[in-house]
Structure formats: C-alpha cells, structure tokens
Amino acid sequence: MAPKKEMEVVKGLDVERYMGRWYEIASFPSFFQPKNGVDTRATYTLNSDGTIHVLNETWSDGKRDSIEGTAYKADPKSDEAKLKVKFYVPPFLPIIPVTGDYWVLYIDDDYQYALIGQPSRKYLWILSRKTHLEDEIYNQLVQKAAEEGYDVSKLHKTPQHDPPPESDGASTDNKGIWWIKSLFGK
C-alpha cells in the first residue's frame, strides 16, 4: 500500500473569526465521546496569551457531559492551521495531559462550516455554526475528506436538536463521568 500524501490544511486561519460555537454535524466515532451522544458541540474562546480555551459538550441520556481543554498552534511560526489540543484526564482529577492534533482541513470563506482532521486519519469532524448543514455542503465536505485519504464510510451523523439545549444546567453535568464510561465502551 502506497503511503498517503500529506494532508492539505488551511493556511492563514483567522483565529479570531474561528472563535465561538461549532456544532458537530458528523464525526468518526471515538472512544472519548459517548456512543449515544447528541447535540455535541465545541465552543472556542481566545485566551489573553493567544491560546484557545476549548469547551466540548455533548448530551447523553438527557444529561450534559463536558470537558475543557486548551488549543494552541503546533508551530507558532507556521501559517498552517495545525493546532494541538490538550485535555487532562480524568477531567475531574487533572493530572495526566493528553494532547492531540487538530488540523483545519477546510473552512468556507464566511467561517460557517469546517472540516477537521489529524495526520493519522483516525479522527474526523464536520462542524457547522448551525445545528444543521445543507446536504450539498455536507457532501462537498465528505468528498474533501475522501480526497485527503479518509475512509468516509466511518462517518456518523450527530443528532442535533433545534433549538440546541442550554448549557447552564450544572446539576445535570456529568463532568468527567463520561470519560470513565467511555473506557468501558458505554
């Protein structure tokens, strides 16, 4: 099998425009997300030191699960949108840092939808500023992922409700519990 070519990533990403809430339209299932998660989203906020605060949320069995982390440019001198994201596990006892790649493979001119991947091609996300994405745009992003060497048959659409749930219900937050459950495949 021939080695896969290096993925093309966005150059000159306007980080400030990228900040805000993004809804997960589809992704490759991963062990660190609940299998029955719905309304999954990420909210990015620029920190004063130039890093990015990451809040990932999902709802499973009617309860909010979340994890917070930090993103930063993998190479501060590069104009490529290759970021590193660091979370601490387990989230409720932050001692072990886990760092992953977050590469912006595509973003539209208006910063309304994006394709996110990483070099091993084990993870893939289609994100949108809205809870739903037009089929034509979705299919274009899937095609772009295929062109970058992803097995798009593994894509799983994420159920999103409209309007999306509020995230202020701390009493329903299972912060950290989902991480332990994910280790056991729940």
From TrEMBL:
Signal peptide: none annotated. This is Temperature-induced lipocalin-1. It comes from the Eukaryota. InterPro entries: Calycin, Lipocalin_ApoD, Lipocalin_bac, Lipocalin_Blc-like_dom, Lipocalin_CS, Lipocln_cytosolic_FA-bd_dom. Residues 13-160 form the Lipocalin/cytosolic fatty-acid binding domain. Belongs to the calycin superfamily. Lipocalin family. Pfam families: Lipocalin_2 (PF08212). GO terms for biological process: lipid metabolic process; response to reactive oxygen species. GO terms for cellular component: cytoplasm.
